[in-house]
Design a protein that fits this description.
The structure is a homodimer of 588-residue chains. With 588 residues, the first copy, chain A, is of the alpha+beta class. Chain A is 30% helix and 24% strand.
Chain lengths: 588, 588
């Protein structure tokens, strides 16, 4: 037996007990006659004390222990004279009578502290040391809690967790698949699932009624920061449901997770149509922790002789509260430069300050009278000391730009508190997106998404322009401007699914070849159904108020898709390729 | 809203209520003036009634509904005049006032009943229909329950569920890896994990203390019946533990699962050494639901002039109770033919019958006196009407043969009741197996298994023969003769791990190239640790008293590794291969 107790559980009430602990040497302090060691495990830190007078040999051995040595000690629990109120075990220490080194340690390449001196690359190479640090360990434990609560909640709501296969069929639609050569079936390949989409729909056809799975998904994308080739979803599907049933169910799940884990009451989630979200926030995932909603000024600002606005499709601004006096011209000029950066791409920015004394200052003061500018302020709800920031241009572009500016102002004014959570359902997305360049439609959600019931007739009978106006029965869950998940009511009718495939550019043969099993299933009593998938890594990060998902993943990959610790991917034995009936074809 | 209630919940107390139900048409009976429909969903079956006199039009429409049509009905709950006591909803029926067909269905290719007329291939092709059948649905729901209880129990025992990566590094040791070409890193490959072994060990080095995961694993093996290329493990690891801690913990988990789900008390699990298991049962996974333990007869049967026994390394038998009178000569001859089949491979079989009247009949009666045969019976504990079946030959071979015979006799005598569960820990396996053909050692468990503490010195200093005698700190959990899982205390010392790799034929370069990250981790304070992995598919099947795992997997693959429903694996677009810097190299 290596221990009677963990390093996190001894209290004053244990004083006098003989205990055995095992753990890592976190720190060691040598105070002449006494040596103190902080012994650490996952559960906490307990102070060990060695006394030169009582056992010189033992004390000498203790002094030689290095950081991160693994030791086992036996001793008696004693009340500390100088207590440490910051540590749950801070009232006691162990007077050690027996010490055994279980394993030595080299000096770690970075400090195992909350704040470490190790850079990203080094931490990833020695991830097993990085995870010893509290902030990383806490995130991994947090993730495990969120998973368990999710499972408990959904199981209690009659959902069945069903494991769907990892070795499936490659389909060119959507992102790129990772593929897996089959040895037994030479020249043939499995694909790793980008999501269990078709399987969960088949489970609905199979009568499972309510399905969920916390499941690994795979996308072979060119990696951006904070994208992982393998990621985890809370994947769900329900039969005999309307959108309302699904929103209620997963609003319930989200509320439960925040309540049970963070002790926070999220309240009822507001809903917003995609069109509204774009008009009011210039984003399909608005951060509604703060205001500064868009104010469209076409009717007031155009045709007054200011050519920039006259030529613009949309003149739109935000009202920044309480900053008219504080914001200097230099700051405003910096902000103009900021919006002109290529990442934002605005041509310029107009400001109107409503000063405390009632006067108005504006970068377009010579084109508009104070009365006209007051009307702008009136429409924007601007009060004394508020400031309008206005962009103009093509509608879609200017909305995106102003969205960026709004978020930036939210950051600068400290309005995006990571400990405040504002969930939102965005609904009524378009079904199809017209890709001007490729001259084809893309599914805005995915090819299995149903149009709204009221749009089905128009989908069968309408012309090309009609298709652009079809609404999907789709929805996204957004929290604090981050898309946590999305889903839709699915098509469950073969004819409608065929029509959708056709609109998306599939030939009947391609549709049959790739999704024949699903089309076939729709002919054997497919029930109405719909579902949702939540990004689990993202949800965990969001709940902890973090923006990066990386530390919520025990062994993440870097931006090149590499695991630098185990050195994967790596070349393989030529014999393996031969068995798989493959040859390398690497071009220089 | 598609339903106010499910098809499984209405009772007499609901009589008079107006309800809406949705589901599948299970059966329809047309009794002239009345039409009855059994409406089915996951939760049960509710009887619908349509009355020609009350609403002829509605009744006519109901008559046209085919099997597996999906319908929605509204009506009032009424007490049935002829109740069905075999159905929880059997006291009531719904007098339908409104009927809507939500989806039609073709005639299913097999009957959706507990006993179906569909063959395996057809059921797999239409798996979404097969899952509608109760026996399959129940198994999938059962699996989900076992998973949830496992997670609850382990989480309550301070285990953290950590997701380990699916895209890892290929290692030639063990079974064949599935590999995944990397597009971004041309010419390099990931492998799918055969188990998260090294990652869970790194999590122990990382201080996670107690890890578990219900996790998909992958092996590219030539498929035998009931092997799946992807399968699921309950994978666990603990730090600062001895074998005893691990056996206690997972005995506790197993007891909990049987208690909470099957309401069965398993009691304390007996333990048996590998050597004992082989000597007493000829198997490292003995079925201890019944006796017939091996009786070695060398001392009594050899050197008495019967050449077959004289030349044999081992003469060993089992005592079959109460069959001496019942077993005819024909049956015994059939049994001799049975053991001589190539799958068993015995040269013959000797029998000794101790008849009810005290007389003895034996196939070797002319070589041995009744007194001698009585001594055999005495050693075997044979009473009146018992029968000895004896094999002889090389020790290892004859034990395997007699194991098969013992299991066969257990089957024939109905001693292997699938509803009786007898767990067993098999311990003290050999560390290394000498492969005479390849002239090399194999790891009996895996290369990370520690020798028993008392054998470590001998491992560093011993000669070749010593290595064969090393015992591993390894253990298997066996229930009813099925290996449910296995594990070991791991090596946590770099030198010992290097020694083991060397014994297994790794050059230092190969060891470093494949497992350098683990060897490195052992130098930074690796704690003593060990773990276990339970076959989850197998455990679920065992608990349900089934021998096949296939129906516990929602979408299994066939013996060629194919999913015949989605048609995977399949050829891919040549463009995909090109992007992956690969070429097909299929030889005719």
């Amino acid at each position: 037996m290596y221990r009677t107790n963990t390093c996190g559980e001894l209290r004053l009430g244990n004083a006098g007990m003989e205990v055995t602990l095992s753990g890592w040497v976190q720190a060691s302090r040598d105070l002449g006659g006494m040596t103190f060691i902080d012994l650490r495990d996952r559960y906490g830190i307990t102070q060990l004390v060695f006394n030169m007078e009582e056992d010189a040999d033992l004390c000498m051995r203790a002094r030689k222990l290095g950081r991160e040595f693994v030791i086992q000690v036996t001793g008696s629990v004693r009340e500390r004279t100088s207590k440490n109120p910051n540590r749950p075990t801070g009232d006691v220490e162990i007077v050690v009578s027996n010490l055994q080194t279980l394993n030595a340690s080299n000096v770690p390449p970075f400090t195992i502290e909350n704040e470490t001196d190790g850079g990203e690359e080094l931490r990833m190479k020695y991830r097993y040391l990085d995870i010893r640090r509290n902030p990383v360990q806490e995130k991994i434990i947090f993730r495990s809690k969120v998973a368990l609560e999710t499972r408990k909640y959904l199981s209690a709501s009659n959902f069945i967790e069903v494991e769907t296969p990892c070795l499936i069929k490659s389909t060119p639609e959507g992102a790129r698949d990772f593929i897996v050569p089959s040895r037994i079936n030479a020249g043939q390949f499995y694909a790793l699932p980008q999501s269990p989409q078709t399987f969960k729909q088949l489970l609905m056809v199979a009568g499972m009624d309510r399905y969920f799975q916390i499941v690994k998904c795979f996308r072979d994308e060119d990696l951006r920061a904070d994208r992982q080739p393998e990621f985890t979803q809370i994947d769900c599907e329900m039969a005999f449901v309307t959108r309302e049933d699904i929103l209620q169910t997963f609003e319930g799940l989200t509320q439960h997770l925040f309540k049970s884990i963070l002790h926070l009451d999220l309240g009822t989630f507001p809903r917003m149509s995609y069109d509204d979200a774009m008009q009011r926030y210039g984003s399909d995932k608005p951060d509604i922790r703060f205001g500064m909603e868009f104010v469209e000024l076409n009717d007031l600002a155009k045709d007054k002789g200011f050519a920039v606005f006259d030529d613009a499709e949309l003149v739109v601004g935000i009202c920044v509260p309480d900053q008219a006096e504080a914001y200097s011209n230099k700051q405003l000029n910096d902000l103009v430069e900021w919006v002109k950066r290529p990442q934002i791409g605005a041509k310029g920015m107009v400001n109107v300050k409503f000063l405390a004394d009632g006067s108005i200052k504006s970068s377009v003061g010579k084109f508009y009278t104070d009365e006209q500018l007051k009307e702008w302020g009136h429409k924007a709800g601007a009060g004394a000391n508020d400031m309008l920031l206005i962009l103009s241009g093509e509608t879609d572009k200017v909305r995106k730009q102003l969205n960026e500016l709004r978020l930036e102002m939210g950051n600068r004014l400290g309005l995006r508190d990571p400990k405040v959570y504002k969930p939102l359902w965005v609904v009524d997305f378009a079904l199809l997106e017209w890709d001007e360049e490729a001259q084809r439609f893309h599914a805005m959600h995915h090819p299995f998404t149903s149009p709204k019931a009221t749009d089905i007739e128009r989908m069968f009978s309408g012309d090309h322009e009609t298709m652009k106006s079809l609404r999907a029965d789709a929805y996204d869950l957004v929290i604090n401007g981050v898309e946590i998940g999305g889903g839709s009511i699915r098509i469950h009718d073969r004819k409608l699914q065929e029509k959708n495939f056709k609109l998306l550019g599939f030939t009947p043969e391609e549709a049959e070849n790739q999704f024949g099993f699903l089309l076939g299933a729709f002919e054997y009593g497919a029930p109405p159904h719909g579902g949702i998938a939540l990004g689990f890594d993202r949800l965990c990060a969001m709940m902890k108020g973090e923006t990066s998902i990386r530390d919520f993943i025990a062994f993440p990959k870097n931006n090149m898709g590499k695991d630098v610790m185990i050195d994967a991917p790596s070349p393989i034995d030529p014999e393996q390729l031969k068995e798989l009936s493959l040859k390398l074809d690497v071009r220089p």
